[in-house]
Design a protein that fits this description.
62% helix; globular; 2 strands; mainly alpha; single chain; disordered C terminus; two-stranded antiparallel ribbon
Length: 117
């Protein structure tokens, strides 16, 4: 019979579904894995993703900077961390896109890895 403590299970979830951490100065900004967010946050993130997909197919100009910034406000561990990261990035769409590329890659890697080395 297998036996695990809740702490063991939490540690495994942290390894598998951990955050994407970005250092800004002396502060670490944690971008939470969607599976570790509250349902309300996940729902808001899904709404942002649907908005991005819908607007990407339209001919209208989409304010991608505003959309990325709103997504950061959702996935950051705290509002203060989101504010710090957004302030440090500013309106640089290239940096925002790179942050989200690394964030999504980090989520994929975390979900695919299920064995312990």
């Amino acid at each position: 019979m297998s036996s695990f403590s809740l702490d063991d299970i939490r540690a495994a979830a942290d390894r598998k579904y951990g955050s994407t951490d970005i250092t800004v100065g002396e502060t670490t900004v944690r971008l939470l894995n969607p599976l570790r967010m509250k349902k309300e946050q996940r729902d808001r993130l899904i709404g942002i993703q649907k908005q991005m997909e819908a607007e990407a197919g339209e001919d209208e100009d989409v304010d991608q900077t505003a959309i990325f910034q709103e997504a950061l406000r959702i996935v950051a561990q705290t509002p203060a961390q989101a504010k710090l990261l957004i302030s440090a990035i500013g309106d640089d769409l290239g940096v925002l896109a790179e942050v989200f590329e690394r964030y999504t890659e980090g989520q994929s890697v975390g979900e695919a890895s299920s064995s312990v080395a």
